[in-house]
Amino acid sequence: MNDSLPALLQGLIGWLADPAHWQGSNGVLERGLEHIFYMMVSTLIGAAIALPIGIGLGHSGRGGLLAINLTNIGRAVPSFGVIIFVFLLVGYGVIPVIVALVALAIPPMVTNSFVGMRGVDPAIRQAATAVGMTPWQRLLQVELPIAMPLIMAGVRTSAVQVMSTATLAAYVGLGGLGRYLIDGLAVRDLVQVLVGAVLVAILAVATELLFAGLQRLVTARGLRHD
Amino acid sequence: MNPEWIASHTDDILAALIQHVQLLGLSLLFGLLIAFPLALLAIRWPRLYAPSLAITGVMFSIPSLALFILLMPLTGLSMATSLIGLTLYTLLILFRNIVEGLRGVSPVVCEAARALGYSRVRRLLQVELPIALPVIMAGIRIAAVTVIGLITVTALIGQGGLGQLFITGFTLSFTTPLVVGFVLSVLLAVAVDLALVGLLWWLTPWQRGRTS
């Protein structure tokens, strides 16, 4: 593990330039897709649970204390511990990882959608009621579009965190780009470890940028600042 | 849960907890020491602020394990590797909150301090910092709780504090150490968070009685 930095970088580039490393069941493409799969499934399940709760609480104005503090509570829960704990309970499989990642994804989405819904100007709500909108119409056509930027900000935070943390899936024997990190560490192959670290970092940053774009896209034109 | 294991391993558990607290304290300290001058620069030259926020935002999205490992060629499997990585995360959170806090100080207050003859440094230390303290403390709380979770991941590169207990649990297929590590790490996060809230309360007597 005492390789010098230039030698490592050269090794890294050489590794990535080798087409054999990109194909097959341990190839970059397969591992990358596994990683993205964990992220998508967990974020979607998390959103399916978190968004109705956050939006519902925000719409009705109840449960604010819980909704706002959930993100802080969630931060204190170490995902690494959750993955191993569920793994010891249910054994090898994708479930421990998905459970841990969903638990990680929920809090920011609840908090942000709650804050987004609460942030809708009461005058606008009243105006919507005054023009004869039903509560459902008001929710779908007025409050949700206004809250959408913040709701998406929550989804973005969750997605990036989940993408980062999916790296730990490899520790309990699953795939994803974390495999290169864990396997490389195990056999002291620093080049492979660096490959994993660089690829995971790129994927996380790409998620951040992708969701930032998505956030802009779902923002109603009248609400954009630029 | 196996109470016998806990009883026979109190030393290990205590050592892990102490390392956890050490890594937390040092990374917060270094994070503050670096973030503060950077924040002052960003306030002095506002044009730097937007790009530096973008950079810190992107850096924050880099997975912790990847970051720790990217540092390994430089610092090896040492405590320094964990500490540099953890400090970087605290830095990103603290920088933003220090800048927001100091920028939130009303210009009228700054003018008043100047009119009273406060020098630039005294104004910063005696007027602007105390007023910005609630926002800065909010950042310190987020950084502290986030880092307590991240420290457990550094178990994979030979440090880890309470995260070592996760590894022990995993390798022995034994939930007791895992639950101990988990509960202690959550309790530590809650305790530190409450302590910081108390510290803020103590430092800002003029805020007491207001709902923040």
Features:
A: 226 residues, mainly alpha, MetI-like fold, elongated, B: 212 residues, 0% strand, membrane (chain A), MetI-like_sf (chain A)
Give a concise summary.
The complex is a heterodimer of chains A (226) and B (212). Chain A has 226 residues and is mainly alpha-helical. Chain A has helices at 5-17, 28-60, 64-76, 79-90, 95-118, 122-130, 135-165, 178-186, 190-217.
Topology:
The complex is a heterodimer of chains A (226) and B (212).
Chain A: H1 5-17, H2 28-60, H3 64-76, H4 79-90, H5 95-118, H6 122-130, H7 135-165, H8 178-186, H9 190-217
Chain B: H1 3-8, H2 10-44, H3 49-60, H4 64-75, H5 79-103, H6 107-115, H7 120-153, H8 163-172, H9 175-203
- Number of strand segments of chain A: 0
* CATH class group of chain A: Mainly Alpha
**What composes the largest sheet of chain B?**
none
CATH topology of chain A: MetI-like fold
Binned strand content of chain B: under 5%
The overall pLDDT average of chain B reads 88
Terminal-residue CA separation of chain B: 41 Å
Total domain modules of chain A: 1
Quote the distance from N terminus to C terminus of chain A.
Answer: 50 Å
Uncertain segments of chain A are none
- Total number of helical segments of chain B? 9
* Bulk shape of chain B: elongated
Total beta strand runs of chain B: 0
Walkthrough of the structure:
Chain B: Belongs to the binding-protein-dependent transport system permease family. Chain B: It is found in: Cell membrane. Chain B: Keywords: Membrane, Transmembrane, Transmembrane helix, Transport. Chain B: The chain crosses the membrane at residues 20-41, 48-71, 77-95, 131-158, 178-203. Chain B: It is a multi-pass membrane protein. Chain A: This is Osmoprotectant transport system permease protein. The complex is a heterodimer of chains A (226) and B (212). With 226 residues, chain A is an all-alpha fold. Chain A has a single domain (5-221), classed as MetI-like (MetI-like fold, Orthogonal Bundle). Chain A is 76% helix and 0% strand. Chain A is built from nine helices and no strands. Chain A has helices spanning 5-17, 28-60, 64-76, 79-90, 95-118, 122-130, 135-165, 178-186, 190-217. In chain A, helix 3 runs antiparallel to helix 5, helix 4 crosses helix 5 (95-118) and helix 6 (122-130) packs across helix 7. Chain A is elongated and about 70 Å long. The model of chain A has no long low-confidence stretch (mean pLDDT 88). Chain B has 212 residues and is mainly alpha-helical. Chain B has a single domain, classed as Orthogonal Bundle (MetI-like fold), CATH 1.10.3720.10. Helix content of chain B is 81%, strand content 0%. Chain B contains nine helices and no strands. Chain B is elongated. The model of chain B has no long low-confidence stretch (mean pLDDT 88). The A-B interface holds A 1, 3-5, 8, 72, 75-82, 84-85, 87-89, 160, 163-165, 167-168, 171-172, 178, 181-182, 185, 190, 193-194, 196-198, 200-201, 204-205, 207-209 and B 57-58, 61-67, 69-70, 72-74, 76-77, 141-142, 145-146, 148-149, 152-153, 155-157, 163, 166, 169-170, 173-175, 178-179, 181-182, 185-186, 189-190, 193.
